[in-house]
Design a protein that fits this description.
The protein is of the alpha/beta class and about 270 residues long. Helix content is about 40%, strand content about 20%. Strands 1, 2, 3, 6, 7, 8, 9, 10 and 11 form a nine-stranded mixed β-sheet that branches. About 30% of the residues are buried.
Amino acid sequence: MRVKLSNRKLWKEYYAVLSAISVIASFVFLFLKVPDGKELLCCIGFLICLIISFLIVWYRANHIQNAVLNINNSTLEIGLGDIFEEEGFKIIAFNEFFDTQVDDVVISRKTLNGKYITHFYPQVSELDGIISSDTHSSEQIVGKLERETGKSSKYRLGTIVKNGEYFLLAFTHFDKNNRAFLEINDYIDCLMNMWNECDIHYGGNTVVLPLLGSGITRFRGYENITDQELLEIIIWTFKVSRIRFQYPAKAKIVLTKDCLSKVNLYDLKLQYK
């Protein structure tokens, strides 16, 4: 279970429920007399009700599917979904070279990146042209590298290429073996730059992103980083970036079933009421 029995916020909520039950019980027993010899049975029944009430609170805390957070007068929603079916601008993570070679070497077909390219661009030359001709992102090129496979222009992490209803994001470094990696400082810098880019491009629309960094991205020095920690870092960078989404626009983090099973939305929901 994601929410442990020792969770203080869980017990605080239960105490509120317990208070309500106690008031109702006091009112009932004020008008109803317990039959003689049934006092112990009533006490046991009342105790069972308290235990069942706690289990219900605990179960609900562990099965939250959606959380809406109010941060800096903006709405950040977190929930289960398919990013390709969401409304608004959808963020798709690329590497720092904006490679488009889906061959399970440079880009895996199983990633959102690979699915996006194979579904929308059977001829990747079209997508390559869109990326290379984008004047805004070209200002974010930080160097050129000779590589055995893939492109040579290296972009600043967090750079966005706006393409229709998609924001293509330069998200990870790539090593010589075509493995995506980040250091934790890179991750934070990337997210901060990403929110700034979103502020430039979103134009009053909702921005949807996956749990960036979850899955195959390697975090050097933080190999055991959890999905919960990644989610909390994304929320923290959203908060400190001071980006404003005017209603009805919002930011939304879409989670897969696997990610949802690993994160604690209960505490986040209470923290950002």
